[in-house]
Known about the structure:
Quinone Oxidoreductase, Chain A, domain 1, Rossmann fold, about 30% helix, globular, Enoyl reductase (ER) domain-containing protein
Amino acid sequence: MKSVQVKDDKGPAENLYIGEGPTPNPQNGQLLVKTEYFGLNRMDLLQRLGNYPLPPQAPKTLGVEFSGTIEKSESDKFAVGDKVFGLVYGGAYAEYVVAAEETLIKVPDDLSMEVAAGLPEVWFTGIQVLTTVGKFQKGDSVLFHAGASSVGIAVIQLAASLGASKIFTTVGSDEKCEFVKKLGNKFGVTVVPINYHNEDFKEVISKHYDASKGEGVNVIIDPVGQTYFVRNLEIAAKDARIVLMGAMSGPIVKGDVPIGLIIYKRLVVQGTTLRSRDLAYQEKLRDFFVSHVVPLILEGKIDTFVDKLFNFTTEDIVASHKYLESNKSMGKVIVKI
């Protein structure tokens, strides 16, 4: 089968190419899926560079989300010919991928295969960071950094659907501000966008709360890391949960860190990843996604965004990674096989 490979096993986007490799075989509880579309994620960029710690069960081939048709089934829950989409530990950048039944979903009639391919990683991650780790409760306020990212778009809409009181988000342009502030409209929830190039999110958010009364943001989700860490502590409410899901600005916090705020505000600061989690953990996320999110997508209450579609050629694969690296996307980047 054809799959995306990396020259020298790591390097810049130019090292990506389409090569030949063996077709994988499904084991008990697994399915062989003929891939139609796959989604790109930032972990793919890190893995291509050799900077992502792969879980032991992950194959060498990039890619964790896809849509396609089952060609061989070793599961009693899915049949040959089923149209499916799902999450895998790796291997989705290929004509065929082996998927576990625990993280696979049948594609509803009213959902396109193109859109479906970009949903699993984004929404499983969003559900995890907001509800499982972030312990979101109805009426909580939420801050998500990088709100125009695919996960940001998902978390904002998920929080709105679950009854957030207010949602703050940092983005990198006025265009993105206009885009994200509409994401809570269908649920009547205010989204406050903050352009980090000309606004300080601490100053903006502080105007909404009285810190002397323990007020602030209840759930803060941060993929940025170093440059935001101290300010996250400062604008967090008493008993807030701060979820660290990335370190795009760096993994080491420099300067004076006021750990007293963690103590006296009783803050919970927790890091998390999804790809390293076992199938039982991921299955629970899938089940919540199927029961809560999919119906809202089909009803038109939650919007899905495919920002750009690329073809399964070496030229387009290289271009897709460069586009994702440019930080210009507002929604998913998808490749059609």
